[in-house]
Amino acid sequence: MSKPMAAIRPIHTYSIVARDVNSGEMGVAVQSHWFSVGSVVPWAKAGVGAVATQSFANVSFGLRGLRLLEEGKTAQGAVEALVEPDEGRDGRQLAIVDARGGVAAYTGARCIAEAGHLIGEQFSVQANMMLNDRVWPAMAETFAGSTGPLAERLVAALAAGQRAGGDVRGKQSAALLVVKAQATGRPWDDTVVELRVEDHPEPVQELQRLLRVHRAYGFMNQGDQCMERNDVQGALAAYGTAESLFPENLEMQFWHAVALANKGLVAQALPVFQEVFRRDRNWVVLTTRLPAVSMLTLNEQDLQSILSLGRE
């Protein structure tokens, strides 16, 4: 049974699907010389698995693959169920990892060279239309030898593939999708990381930058939570880490200062406000609006001390 042509997209690319053996998180990372590769190749669902569909991609394999896993099929069973009835299978490339760590992959005989895949411990790397046949082995070696959070390891594998030669046509877009090991019952909370670079001269580098920004905002949230618990030292450490990851971002510094001021640490907040105001005076305007909505809770004297910095 063939799939409708609308489901078929020529996404020649390289990708990795993986499950973290420690956290149980599952994810996909991909790069291609094709616009918006993240809208086609990567699919994942918490507690279920992750899918990469590429080459002459049957986009339906993403959702259908996840559905098959939910119905109880293994990764291998899902790949077989998708590929065997598909008349276009010779041009397909597909990889699936399930929530138990099972992995399966398929590379059709008519995928454009260089093309192939490698399966490792709870991961698979796959590529087609590469400059050479060293791309996916380099990805596998890097991923298998890496440590740390799954998202960073997936992106490191992409970078290794690019260093080994990458797509013969060049590079354009990249994407990263990581989900939790178990579904929470709140789908909006089940995604750990979801980032896409739609069109960029260095998509993997940009994906790495976005992941760093993502981590920075995570530390900002952690700092806010520490403040709510009156853990000032924990908050300062978290805010400091966030700002070291994204030092050019004034908003992080501004809300850091607001959090300090709201805890009565005005003396510590003043130099932060001063630097933010010096670089962009619009933050002074925003500061004047916060007391009315109880986002800056200060006595008038302290408020004026802060605002006076914007008049210097």
What do these coordinates show?
By secondary structure, the chain is an alpha+beta fold. The chain has three domains: 5-201, 4-Layer Sandwich (Glutamine Phosphoribosylpyrophosphate, subunit 1, domain 1); 202-247; 248-312, no CATH class. It is 41% helix and 22% strand. The protein contains ten helices and eleven strands. It has a six-stranded antiparallel β-sheet, with helices on one face. Strands 1, 4, 5, 6 and 7 form a five-stranded antiparallel β-sheet that branches. The radius of gyration is 23 Å and the shape is elongated.
Would you kindly provide a brief summary of this structure?
This protein is α+β, with helices and mostly antiparallel strands and 312 residues long. The protein contains ten helices and eleven strands.
Which helices and strands occur, and which strands form pairs?
Elements: E1 8-11, E2 13-19, E3 26-32, E4 42-45, E5 49-58, H1 60-70, H2 75-83, E6 92-98, E7 103-107, E8 116-120, E9 123-127, H3 135-144, H4 150-164, E10 173-179, E11 191-197, H5 203-228, H6 232-245, H7 250-262, H8 266-279, H9 282-289, H10 300-308
Question: How much of the residues is beta strand, in percent?
Answer: 15-25%
Distance between the termini: 73 Å
Q: Reading side by side through the largest sheet, how are the strands ordered? A: 8-9-2-3-10-11
Shape: elongated
The helix tally amounts to 10
What brief labels describe this structure?
3 domains, alpha+beta, 312 residues, 11 strands, disordered N terminus, 10 helices, elongated
